[in-house]
């Protein structure tokens, strides 16, 4: 198993043993998570792909890997094109590819604990047109050939105190119980890890960069609950926190426990609960109500305590990032830094706060052409020097008990070219347009996406990722259901209290990348003479935008006013946390245009 080619050969041999003609390998876990523990990194182990979203299909003579526009460059750098076809989504899909490539009468395997029911139905329909069938496996063939597969994390759960959560777990369960009663349901299955963490006010360390624990839960209409988690992960403090209304069981007992819901009406989320959960409920005699997990929307709408905590985390994090940007301004022009050194120094500044629990994702530290790889992950073999005359893109964030941060800055190392400045300014104009947006209640994120792209579009340019994603409260740096995107989501109405990113970009393959990202809070907006209730955004992130990249004459008066006001706010929030040369640098970086 020393090479990815060997692993692909071994998987094909295993498929023969399991009487299968193909197998689908998604990058997820039993909870439909975006970020997964090491034990569930099957796609990376099989192919070498290190991105956070993708899937693969292996047939006897062909294999394909499917990624979206964020990973177009990365997948070609990390996966051997001699053995894998590269497919782009949403332009194609696994179902469509199988319909074209699977053999007549083929048996295509899938793990029912790693796919939604909708996906199973779509793939089944596509294969039926070829006379092929989709086969649920009891043993995942990748696991069968993965000799040193890591065990799931044994890390302890920790209590997330009410002073950070803003509401007790008992209150949250009571709200879910009221919702179940209104839906005439007896129970709801919670399988999404962040929903469980939020509902029970617990956190964990089972997934790198995301403070969640591997668990399942069933919340009942009487406000009691059953929590399924490995016994070694709880202690006296957690049991006391959960209270008598929460019955704790071994995680391994969850699948069998679904049969105990026979005769009851049970809510299961079609997007977040895997096909195996639906099948077990139906086979056990439950009536399944395919409704959204009742924790999803309340989790996304932050309460006053969570908002205050987030602002405190942002102020702290902004100071750490500003210290880093000052350090870069001093050290980078010397030409002795590289991507790894910069990422390490930024993490050190965050750790110096004394309150950092973890990074919120692996820092994207991209110099020159690596900055054009949207979700670039620096490693020793890709590590580039940060050279004068280039652009450096750094997308990073921290996990603090009181909030989760995510911020991107693009900085010029030395003197930027006229093209770099112009395209940076187009991105900045889009960022400002979205930040200044005022819109009626009920507006969906997808309706706002064009605001950030309009100036790039006017010059025939674009970017292949969404403009904004939701962010959790000491939870996932990517959180639904809210998004600002025209594809892959964006249909959720924005509600006051939601936190999203504002991150337009531009990427010139082989040369440089540009992205400007702040987090924003959806807030009620008082508009004189408005005939409908209105909303807008409050910018939460505080760190200077590189003035050396701003084409001032291309900004309107309103845009210059916004940037000057933003920088004044950065100085007011971050300035008191700095001193000496760092404070002098910040004052210059935040001076009016």
Automatic annotation (TrEMBL):
InterPro entries: Creatin/AminoP/Spt16_N, Creatinase/aminopeptidase-like, Creatinase_N, Pept_M24, Pept_M24B, Peptidase_M24_C, X-Pro_aminopeptidase_P. Keywords: Aminopeptidase, Hydrolase, Metal-binding, Protease. Residues 533-593 form the Peptidase M24 C-terminal domain. One of its GO terms (molecular function) is metalloaminopeptidase activity. GO terms for cellular component: cytoplasm. Gene3D superfamilies: Creatinase/methionine aminopeptidase superfamily, Creatinase/prolidase N-terminal domain. PANTHER family: XAA-PRO AMINOPEPTIDASE 1. This is Aminopeptidase P family protein. It comes from Sphingobium amiense.
